[in-house]
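Team,

Forwarding the record for the chain on the shared tracking sheet. I've put the sequence and predicted structure together so nobody has to dig through attachments.
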Amino acid sequence: MASREYWADLIRLAEKYDFRIFADECYSEIYRNEAPVGALTVARELGADPDRVVLFNSLSKRSNLPGLRSGLIASGPENIKRIKQLRAYSGAPLPAPLQAAAAKVWADEAHVQENRALYQEKYTVADEVFSGLKGYMPPEAGFFLWLPVDDGEAAAMKLWTQTGVRVLPGAYLSQGETGANPGEHYIRVALVAPKEDTRAALITLRDCLY
């Protein structure tokens, strides 16, 4: 989870070397203890040009509604002007009934808090199941575990063929600058099933791989 200091360093670099930051904050409402700081918040604190940051969010993770295809882009006035033009030329219109439903969901915070509480319960489950696992890192936010293994592909295949539990090799989601892939020795596990199903799957995973 990016810290205020991380964003501040990055924004200063963007102003010094004239580049833009595209901040994917779609998981910003799913966190354990403290809400993550947003990139635009830090830009405002620094007095930086808001056009240095383009922030993306959606209902996909916040409200578990990926099929609604409703999101937002926030930035400075120049970027928004260009994005509006791009949207007018290439965007797919969202039907009015879906827009109305999305507006209702964006305006409601109660379900977001309930959703976050469910994920917090599953964080606790994961901590219990993997309490003795060397290299286990309790998640601060989001709904993924990154679990250490010898070989991510081999571990994922073993889990799928022997137990039916499906995970993703970490190497599929990362890339190394010098050829070495930092995700090679991890699997990514999504905590998206109901709590007791998640508990059963994590126990099965632990007993199969560790």
